[in-house]
Amino acid sequence: MSTVAVTDATFDAEVRKSDVPVVVDFWAEWCGPCRQIGPALEELSNEYAGKVKIVKINVDENPESPALLGVRGIPALFLFKDGQVVSNKVGAAPKAALASWIAGAI
């Protein structure tokens, strides 16, 4: 399963009401570090299929959701479990570090 594009309109349904933990990647097209972690998140999405959903939300096209969560810098990753934020991190990281962060939070 690859990453899922989410909008402000679909955020609650895809993230807060998900029956599995969700990693939300707040990103933008112009953000180099965001593009850098994209392939790792795609791979992790496949590796965690059925256990964790990984979604991406473009902050330029969807300003409401990042504002509600206080996102100030991107890439910003938030891990939701049972509709609540259980962990978050800002900035790019290698795939192994992202996998370790996800595994430690679920």
Automatic annotation (TrEMBL):
Cystines in this chain: 31-34
Protein name in UniProt: Thioredoxin
PANTHER family (alphabetical): GEO12009P1
UniProt KW keywords: Disulfide bond, Electron transport, Redox-active center, Transport
Organism of provenance: Cereibacter changlensis JA139
Family (UniProt): Belongs to the thioredoxin family.
Gene that this polypeptide is encoded by: trxA
Active site: 31 (nucleophile), 34 (nucleophile)
Positions of the record's site feature: Deprotonates C-terminal active site Cys: 25
One CC-aspect GO term: cytosol
One of the record's GO molecular function terms: protein-disulfide reductase activity
Contributes to redox potential value (site feature) positions: 32-33
Lineage: superkingdom: Bacteria
CDD domains on file: TRX_family (cd02947)
InterPro entries: Thioredoxin, Thioredoxin-like_sf, Thioredoxin_CS, Thioredoxin_domain
Residue intervals of the Thioredoxin domain: 1-106
PROSITE patterns: THIOREDOXIN_1 (PS00194), THIOREDOXIN_2 (PS51352)
One biological process term in Gene Ontology: cell redox homeostasis
